[in-house]
Amino acid sequence: MRILFLGDVMGRAGRAAITGHLPKLRTDWRLDFVVVNAENATAGAGLSAGHAKELLDAGADCLTLGDHAFDQRDMLQFINQEPRILRPLNFAKDAPGAGARVFQARGGKQVLVAQALGQVFMKRPFDDPFSALDAVLKKFPRGGNVQAALIDFHAEATSEKMAIGHFCDGRASIVVGTHTHVPTADAMILPGGTAYQSDAGMCGDYNSVIGMDKAEPMRRFITGMPRERFTPAAGEGTLSGLMVETDDRSGVALALHPVRLGGRLLHAGPPDAP
After folding, report:
1. Considering only the top CATH level, what class is 2-206+238-261?
2. Mapped to the 3 state alphabet, what secondary structure does 223-255 carry?
3. In angstroms, rounded to a whole number, what is the distance separating the alpha carbons of residues 55 and 72?
4. Cα dist from 9 to 92, 107, 131, 202, whole Å
5. How do 100-104 and 110-117 pair as beta strands?
6. 238 neighbors 198 (Cβ within 8 angstroms)
7. Terminus of the chain with fewer CB atoms < 10 Å: N or C?
8. What are phi and psi for residue 133, nearest 5 degrees?
9. Are 19 and 58 in contact (CB under 8 A)?
């Protein structure tokens, strides 16, 4: 199975990168399933119902959120109407929606997608992600009642992301980090057959400060004083993520390819990429 994961969609530039590239990639790369982290897709803060529909119509099979899951208030209701959107498992006990779900990929294959939030250096004290993911992976074993399992770990600290990767090794097909908006160069297959990358990067304008227009973040770093609100950078966006090929019977990751398409980052992707 060919599974594509795309990192945090950042504002209009990120949405344009998705809608501009994903429909063609689904055909050209013969993708079976696509997961997109969309928690910054609406003005850099959360995801609106309208923008969720736009990304799903472009070819995403599942949208994951993050610590900004409900910054857009209409998501509190919309997430219960749209099962293809997941919020983190450990966001809050009374949060609407689900943090894990089994989806049907092309050809009837079953894919588990789950998301959890890290605890280190995050602004809010979230529940333990290890126990939350452990329960889900025990219920849906890779190569058992699902043909593949993907974990989106939305966290700040690379050490915590790596620990989650090793914790899920041999049980998940893919563990990929989000949240920091900078793609890491550590994409690898762990000893138990789990594809891992600390951060997939963002889908957005990299001529920025992690997706935000440069002027205000730089002013705050230099002067220590805010003047304006942060706004997403509006230049050409880059599509960033990870494509993984898995064994249909065992769910083991067989190959992985970092994806960088369009904008300012060097191109990389599957060997047969356009």
Report:
1. alpha beta
2. HCCCCCCCCECCCCCEEEEEEEEECCCCCCEEE
3. 16
4. 23, 28, 28, 6
5. antiparallel
6. no
7. C
8. -70, -35
9. yes
| pLDDT on residue 214 | 94
Question: What is the rounded CA–CA span in Å between residue 254 and residue 1?
Answer: 10
End-to-end CA distance of the chain: 19
**HSE on the CB side for 97, CA within 13 Å?**
29
Write the DSSP assignment of 48-90 as a string of letters. -HHHHHHHHHTT-SEEE--TTTTSSTTHHHHHHH-TTEE--TT
Torsion of CA 241, 239, 231, 155, to 10 degrees: 0
Token pair of 105 as six digits: 């990929």
Q: Which positions are annotated as active-site residues?
A: 68
Given a cut of 90, is residue 267 above it in pLDDT?
Answer: no
Write the pLDDT tens digit of every residue in 123-134: 788 889 999 999
- Judged by DSSP in three states, 16 sits in helix
Reported as a single tens digit per residue, the pLDDT across 240-262 is 999 999 999 999 999 999 999 99
Rounded to the nearest 5 degrees, what angle is found at the Cα of 168, between the Cα atoms of 247 and 35? 60
Q: Residue 265 pLDDT more than 90?
A: no
- pLDDT tens digits, residue range 41-72? 999 999 999 999 999 999 999 999 999 999 99
Q: Would you list the domain boundaries of the chain? A: 2-206+238-261
Residues 6+ positions from 185 with CB-CB distance below 8 Å: none
CB half-sphere exposure, 243, CA atoms < 13 A: 22
